[in-house]
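User: What would this chain look like folded?
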Amino acid sequence: MLARINYLTAGESHGKGLLGIIDGLPAGLEINEEYIAHDLFRRQQGHGRGGRMKIENDYAEIYTGVRHGKSLGSPIGLILPNKDWTNWTKKMSCDPIKGKIKKVTLPRPGHADLTGIQKYDFDDIRNVLERSSARETAMRVALAAICRKLLKDIGIEVGSRVIQIHKVKDETRLSEQISPEKMNAKADKSPVRCLDKMAEKKMIDAIDKAKKEGDSLGGIFEVIASGLPYGLGSHTQWNKKLHARIAESMMSVNAFKGIEFGMGFLQAEKLGSHVHDEIGWDGNKYIRYSNNAGGIEGGMSNATPIIIRAVMKPIPTLIKPLRSVDIKTKKNQLAHKERTDSCSVPSASIVAESMLCFVLADALLEKFGGDSMDQLKAHIQASGKY
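Assistant: Here's the prediction, encoded as structure tokens.
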């Protein structure tokens, strides 16, 4: 449900690389490969990552749409090579090959394997798992870094932290005035991206225990955006509501299974008088005395921080596989084993930041318009009340 921006990714997990294109951004946005590389590096970190991250050193090359460090207003194209491709040149060749390649025939419960081969009439699960792999999110993070730069230039910050892995919770209460970028700086120093040192140790121990047992863990992360104007999104149509657009974006990511805004599901056990954010006037603008809504009311931003929490299920690729059925023989067997992470929640929090950046940059451009960054800034400046 993006209105102004459009982006596409292409590529397989063990193919030559990932391709990405993003269109609809204004001209004059300062961007370079090093800025993009910073978020790609953050995505690769986190306790519980598998051997693949020791091979890759993700770096996206800008191929189109930028000249002398500034966007041209035309589509921006990125290429992110897979270093692991050298080990897969035959198995993942785009050209016909001589000889046989062993097919993957044991679908993993919880993955796209079985539904994918049924939909596309494949007899080799690799045709599905290569694209359904979370490796694809590396290109989303790269493209979203360009949107993050646009937001940053306007004064909007986006950050995240992990608040739960398995049964271990980080219950650190954040100041309402916290800067998402400062939160990121602190969270990025933690191997699990949480803010509480005691919780960090328990999370690491839980991940290590699951890995030793051949299992995987999921968790919950919180994403915050600040510096927003009011009025992004609209109440007038279902597909214009900001929280709906954010939810769609978040739920498009592998293994994300639920999302809440502000107080979220806790509202079910509260009285209305304890949920809704009372309104005041500070002599210059309207204010809220709380932010249980998570920065969005009626499908529109209300100029308070947007606060989102999302849950990621445990990764379905297990070293100690679950029961399955061979799609060729129809005999009961254990599921296919593929190189995997034991926990990707810290990395997933970076991906979630990226998905929010797409939506907020799109909503900002939709509201204020402009074919160049100077025009966008002038339009925002002219709308002083925002």
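The CA atoms of residues 262 and 293 lie 5 Å apart. If you want, I can go into more detail on any region.
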